[in-house]
Design goal:
Blueprint (H helix, E strand, L loop, with lengths): L8 H18 L4 H14 L8
């Protein structure tokens, strides 16, 4: 895996997660439900299988 040359992973992901939350809330999903689903997806998804 190649590390980003500048900034942290949190800095990279924060705006994307913020936008995802805004889109989900605009679609009518409760914020706590979206967070629960994201945690579940991260917990159940084999990210190593993506080849990344």
């Amino acid at each position: 895996m190649v590390e980003a040359s500048t900034g942290s992973a949190a800095d990279f992901l924060r705006p994307r997660l913020h936008n995802l939350m805004k889109e989900a809330e605009a679609a009518g999903y409760a914020r706590d439900r979206v967070l629960a689903v994201l945690i579940d997806l991260l917990d159940d998804t084999d990210l190593e299988a993506t080849g990344q």
